[in-house]
Amino acid sequence: MESTLSATPHHHDAPPANTGLLVVAGILVAIPIVALMLVGTYAKDGPRLAGFPFFIWYQFLWVIICSALTYAAYRVVLKARPHRPMNPEGTEFLDEEDVR
Amino acid sequence: MTALVAAGPNTGVNGVGLVVLIIFFVIVAVAGFWAARWRRPDSMASLEEWGLGGRSFGTWITWFLLGGDLYTAYTFVAVPAAMFSAGAVSGFFAVPYTIVLYPIIFVFMSRLWSVSHRHGYVTPADFVHGRSGSRGLSLAVAVTGFLATMPYIALQLVGIQAVLEVAGVGGGGNVVAKDAPIFIAFLVLALYTYTSGLRAPAVIAFVKDTLIYLVIIVAVIYLPSKVGGWAHVFDAAQNKMQTTNPVTGKPTGSFIPPAGQYWAYATLALGSAMALFMYPHSVTATLSAKSRNTIRRNASILPAYSFLLGLLALLGWVAIAAGTKPIGLDGKPNPQLVVPQLFEDFFPSWFAGVAWAAIAIGALVPAAIMSIAASNTFTRNIYKAWIRPEASPSEEARVSKFTSLVVKAFALVFVLALDKTNALNFQLLGGIWILQTFPSVVFYLYTRWFHRWALLLGWAVGMGYGTVSAYNVINPATKAHFGGSLATIPGIGELGYIALTSFVINVVVAAVFTVVFRLVRAAEGLDETIPADYFADAGDPRVEKIDLGAHETTPSA
């Protein structure tokens, strides 16, 4: 987050985050988008499943996979950047000692 | 399916079905008025309460509300109709569209929720104003949102009309008798939206979604068995799509997208997904959630509706196997009638009534939310920003309530007085236009690197390019303009969704002119947000607005 106005004071910053975990969450939500944009990988009739062409049941399958991946990303994000309450003035986040 | 009531002839009035439909409509109307007392606030006289339900909805209410809001009657009518008449590229793209939608909103909507919570933003344009300090850019976002929402509301009427037409009402030469049912339905809708605000669609969404789930589950289990099983359904669809259309000399449609249409399928899905949460009504339903994580949790449970939509889309192909003849009361074929007609042909009358009620009520929820969102946009970003900066919260609520009536009256005139194709063309344009606000809304959630004037310029170029491209698409059968939403992508040479092409041009223009404006040191707007705002949650303090009036907080535009 950059500010074009002035040097941002420390207390305005975002709550601390585990960047590695944020990247993991980003990859989790990117997977279904990439998979479904590659139309050539699934635009075919066979193999059919219970009468359903591959094209149809594969996309239905992604509804479920996407839901699971998004939920996983949600859990990861909560861990990556736990919520920090703000002080009553709304100018800074409370330190861990204050929260406790 | 025990009490099989003999269905009347297709052309006549389906008495039993119609009575069931009316009963459900009355239940919903009572619920709509009662909603004003539900989670009753101290006062309804502010946009926070009337327009956002007090920002108080938890995960489940938000799930029903967003589901009721995003999956509209028009979707339920138009997607199977497209599958029925043109096949997978025109219809089934709705499935990947509503799948990739949720990872996309998972990423940025929680930030929009947080900053809106801190600053009391009600519309996307509110945020753009606060972040960019540009009244001009905010106005561009507001006007785009308002214009794109209007035909969307009108198309909800088209959904109700489809049901009424199959039920056998709305026919005849008499203009008053023809339009009376839809007029009454919209009047009642307008009145309970006026009194209850966003609480009305929130309550009705429970009824709507329950009915829709019930009907679809019954339909996908029962109907295929009646027409020879799913395998036969797909064979019938494949046969129909392969036959040559006598007018164009090309295949009727696509059973599975051929290699030349991969780009079309992918860009339609991605472009539509990126655009959906730029519509004010989607943002309204999101901001009514009570906490930052409500929307993230919802991103993982809302795909249940995508599953439903996919099954509904397939009903278009079931209708092919069933030999459904969607003939309107004027005697002309109308593919929009295919799903209601399929229900009438195969269900006992009383259950056909339930199914029609599901579709018709499915129109009322989004129509209510859209009119509320359009009114809030008008009130906040046009009335208060440009006409009466000193308007108090109760005056805002008054203006918004009144505007919601005007918006609905306008939609009614739009559909009843003008040719329906106008609404459809306008809706197609709306989808292209709304995506052009994506850079201003979403990029600003992360960075102020883009210059506000460059964003405005990019928006203008994207709008212009998109409008001209859509106009130039000629329908091969009717030779009319606005014949579709696909055009050749410059430089790639494949067919793609015009909205996404315009978006890319929009971003390139914005980036180039950002560099130019920085070089000439054009004035930067004042940012009223701080980085911490984008992570705030319920319970964190709201920013106290010093009542300056909009003109003083925004030095230049």
Written description of the protein model:
The complex is a heterodimer of chains A (100) and B (557). Chain A has a domain at 17-81. Helix content of chain A is 50%, strand content 0%. Chain A has helices at residues 19-37, 54-80, 96-99. Chain A is rod-shaped, with a radius of gyration of 21 Å. Chain B has 557 residues and is mainly α. Chain B has one domain (15-448): Sodium/glucose cotransporter, CATH 1.20.1730.10. Chain B is 69% helix and 1% strand. Chain B is built from 23 helices and two strands. Chain B has helices at residues 15-34, 47-50, 59-70, 73-85, 88-91, 94-119, 124-132, 135-167, 175-196, 199-227, 229-242, 262-276, 280-287, 292-301, 303-322, 338-346, 349-387, 393-417, 420-435, 438-446, 452-471, 498-519, 550-553, and strands at residues 486-488, 495-497. A two-stranded antiparallel ribbon of chain B has the order 1-2. In chain B, helix 4 crosses helix 8 (135-167) and helix 7 (124-132) packs across helix 20 (438-446). Classes of the chains: A mainly alpha (100), B mainly alpha (557). At the A-B interface, helix 1 and helix 2 of A face helix 6, helix 11, helix 12, helix 14 and helix 15 of B.
What does the secondary structure layout of this molecule look like, with pairings?
The complex is a heterodimer of chains A (about 100) and B (about 550).
Chain A: H1 19-37, H2 54-80, H3 96-99
Chain B: H1 15-34, H2 47-50, H3 59-70, H4 73-85, H5 88-91, H6 94-119, H7 124-132, H8 135-167, H9 175-196, H10 199-227, H11 229-242, H12 262-276, H13 280-287, H14 292-301, H15 303-322, H16 338-346, H17 349-387, H18 393-417, H19 420-435, H20 438-446, H21 452-471, E1 486-488, E2 495-497, H22 498-519, H23 550-553
Antiparallel strand pairs in B: 1-2
Helix pairs in contact in B: 1-9, 1-10, 1-17, 3-10, 3-13, 3-14, 3-17, 4-8, 4-15, 4-17, 6-12, 6-14, 6-15, 7-8, 7-20, 8-17, 8-18, 8-19, 9-18, 10-11, 10-15, 10-17, 11-15, 12-19, 13-17, 16-17, 17-18, 19-21, 19-22, 21-22
